[in-house]
Amino acid sequence: MCETRLCPHEAETLCTCKAIKERDKDIIGLFIHIHENMKDVEWELDYTDLSRPEKRRLCLVGKCRVCGGRLCQELDASDELAGDDLLAAIYRHLYQIHNAGGRYMPRQEFRDRFIRMFHEADRAFICEWLDRPENQHASRMYRRSVKPAAQEEKAGVTVYTIIRTGVDVDHGSFPGPSAEGSFFSLLRAKKELQRLVCAEKEDLDGRYDCEELDEDHWEMYQDGNAAALFVRLEIVPSELILMSDGEKEEVEGSLEEEAEAKECLSRMWHMRSDHVERDRDGEHH
């Protein structure tokens, strides 16, 4: 829950459900209650200046579908960040919340709500920031959480994996995310995405009446019911980290030590076996 001294909703009636009353004893139960029962969710961001680090408040605020009281969840507002890094971090936090546990929000709706969080004077800049190629999908923003020094130390290659997600409540289908293929070439991944989209469309019925298509993702869903009926294919890039020369030497050294230890044990075993055989020969004589 939000810190009371910072919350502008303090005067509103708080949720009276058991999970709220016992939140100090069962924090997991509290999170489950919020996740399952918070409706009419609004995003709120309190800040003064995006260009410098400062104390901020990032919250999800809504109503409990059980008792009608206020529910809220405070998220990490990345107080230590500013500018591009701050915007990418906040976008990632909200994306994780609203695409977890079977939840789903159409891309344009997500971005519209993201823009509305900011001061009116900043919204033109936020729109321009979202239009940049590197900000076209949340998966591309995750790389910014890796410090430049760490990127220099680690050599790696980019792998492009096509991920399929979807929900069909009417038919009781709630499959988890599945990988449809991984590629070192972005061009090959895009071609495979096009092939999968064509195949997927042949199997969809008339309930899927809305479509969004871009170079790296495709989705179809039911208008006004996207959370209960959708299918999505997207290309998610990730870094395959290769071992540095120092790590290779360390591994090779460990393997050599392991081989020496095994050889030592083998010699000890043979010495013990020879000793046992000699004792047996002595008994026979």
Q: What portion of residues is helical?
A: 40-55%
Q: How many angstroms does the end-to-end distance come to?
A: 85 Å
The largest β sheet comes out as: 5 strands, antiparallel
Strand content: 15-25%
Descriptive overview:
The protein is an alpha+beta fold and 285 residues long. It contains nine helices and eight strands. The strands form two sheets. It has a five-stranded antiparallel beta sheet with strand order 5-4-8-7-6. A three-stranded antiparallel beta sheet has the order 1-2-3. Strand 7 and strand 8 form a beta hairpin. The chain is globular, with a radius of gyration of 28 Å.
Question: Nutshell version of this structure?
Answer:
Helix content is about 40%, strand content about 25%.
Write out key terms for the chains shown.
single chain, 285 residues, alpha+beta, five-stranded antiparallel sheet, 9 helices, globular
